[in-house]
Amino acid sequence: MVPPNAPAIPPRLLRALLPVLLLLMAGLPGPARADKASQPIPAATLAMMAAKGTSAAAPILLRAYKKESEIELWKRNGSGRYVPIKTYPICRWSGQLGPKTKNGDRQTPEGFYTVAKSQMNPNSRYYLSFDIGYPNAYDRARGATGSAIMVHGICSSMGCFAMTDQVAGELFSVAREAFAGGQTAFQFQSFPFRMTAANMARARSDPNIGFWRQLKEGSDRFEATGEEPVVTVANGRYAFLPSKDPTREEAALALHRDENRRIAETVEEGAAALRTTYSDGGQHAFWAHRIRQGFPVGDISRPEALAYAGQEVVLIPARRKPAPPAILPETLWAAVIGPGTPYFPRRVADWSPQAEPARFPEPATRYAQSLPILLRATLDGQVGLPDPAALHAAVEKVARAD
């Protein structure tokens, strides 16, 4: 309480002290800070859910992409399909593209993981967090070690997905409401990059390509069916149970076949084979820009390594596929090859179609008909080369007609 005779604080001094007072208040325990795990889902995010025919209580699924530094939020809608709701930029992940294999390797894991309610941590040292469930059955079958891989706040990673406090808080609230709605666990899918045919073709010579093909099978299945893939491990590999819906299962198999065909076509067309290397993980460009502007994100792990993130090493240079032969317009072809044109009068002496109709039938004026006949006859020496001057005159005639 201020004494009644205390002197008034000058307005200028009050304005100068206000930022300091606000900072001090922010560091004190209060309702907003103490209740961070109970913060509501932002209204804008709820509106995105409603626009996709879903709600805060509906089941969720998260998909992470290391190279793009993004985590996608998916929600199950009224028809039972998962639909994309929102994409969050990752502030920091560590290591290289590829799976985590041992404790201390700084690798952010890749694979299919399960997050139960018990893995949510409202008392995290990194604001709020949840454990993604590494190591899973696949990791254990491969002898992988390590634990406590989190999605958390701040911007520091030692194998985790660091999201900043605000984003971690929103993801925490989204998961909390899904659990409250009855979901017992949600799937967390982690990929090296978006699993497109083009990306797979570029990564075909990477040492991890065999593992990534397993991940793509699960990714394709999810994209085709809209269902959370049922993941198992067989003979040390990821395996996926078929959908209970025959139509969706057929769609999953068809998409995976089409994607494999697109990969093969992309390679055949001469796409380069690349390997992406990092000094120690990456960061979304959004956060890089905000940090340069002075936006507070907490501690940033190994900021000097971000200058060497995403370096492309060419393993197989791109090559150009030879262009197909140019197709002549029918009008020009007829002017050059048709009866009475400069080409066909130049026949071998003493030869006529009547004498050997099977070897050289009557000339056709259509391009598709006459080209193979002309090539065969030229190779056999039955037709000589045309007079260039006569050909030029024919082309000029067609050009003037156009």
Secondary-structure element sequence? HHHEEEEEEHEEHEHHEEHEHEHHH
Please compute the radius of gyration using only Cα atoms. 33 Å
The number of E-state strands comes to 13
Give the class-level CATH name of the largest domain: Mainly Beta
Enumerate the strands of the largest sheet in spatial order, edge to edge or round the barrel: 3-2-1-9-4
Broad shape:
elongated
Strand content: 15-25%
> Any low-confidence stretches, pLDDT <50, length ≥5?
18-32, 345-361
The average pLDDT is 85
Helical element count?
12
CATH topology of the largest domain: L,D-transpeptidase catalytic domain-like
Entry keywords:
2 domains, 4-stranded mixed β-sheet, 402 residues, L,D-transpeptidase catalytic domain-like, 5-stranded mixed β-sheet, alpha+beta, 12 helices
Polypeptide structure, described:
The chain has 402 residues and is an alpha+beta fold. It has two domains: 36-316, Beta Barrel (L,D-transpeptidase catalytic domain-like), CATH 2.40.440.10; 330-401, no CATH class. Helix content is 35%, strand content 16%. The protein has helices at residues 11-27, 31-34, 43-51, 137-141, 165-180, 197-202, 209-225, 246-268, 285-292, 330-337, 367-379, 388-401; strands at residues 60-65, 70-76, 82-89, 111-116, 120-121, 129-131, 150-152, 161-162, 185-191, 231-234, 237-240, 273-277, 311-316. Strands 3-2-1-9-4 form a five-stranded mixed sheet. α7 (209-225) packs across α8 (246-268) and α10 (330-337) packs antiparallel against α12 (388-401). The longest helix is centred in the middle third of the chain and has 23 residues, at 246-268. It is elongated, with a radius of gyration of 33 Å. It starts with 10 loop residues before the first helix and ends with a helix. The model is unreliable at 18-32 and 345-361 (pLDDT under 50).
